[in-house]
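Problem 12. The chain below contains 181 residues. Write out its predicted structure in token notation.
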Amino acid sequence: MSSIRSLLLVLLAVAASSAAGIAGNKLKHKHIHLYMHETFSGANATEGAILPSPFGANAKFGSVAVFDDELRTGLSRDSPLVARYQGIIVATGVAEGPASQGHLTVASILFVAGEYAGSVLSLEGPFVGFQGTLERSIVGGNGKFRMARGYYLLKLLNLTSPLTAVSEADFYVLTCHQSYM
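Solution.
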């Protein structure tokens, strides 16, 4: 019986020290609000298919596309460029229909100007459909975002033409204690 009490005391001490360690790290919450500008075709296209599905012309499963979209401070394409949204998207849904057309994205936000210039956020996550507000995970980063985690929301605002679109992007980032920097 005393060994169970000893074990419980050790577990309680570990839990208390872990909680104190987390509270002592003082994670910083950052909210970054930007606008993503996409161009779907033409000489200045920022995304496109690179590999069709191996399962036939009408299939989406297995198709791969790349993107290198602009993240700007405003809705206008003339607003300052802050970052690039670069990555791949793979169609992962086998079943037919909009509810089962899953996709997986792996992306990086490369900050090219401003407070976070030279830093990167790493993003990953599945999503189904392209309607409403999409949410994906922030799984890491470097520079000012070393050991970052969080999530981001992406919402299509408007198609500025049949070839271009603007979306609102909100990044909610927890960054580590300054001693890790």
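Discussion. Residues 2-25 form the longest helix (24 residues). Students who got a different answer should revisit the alignment rule from Section 12.3.
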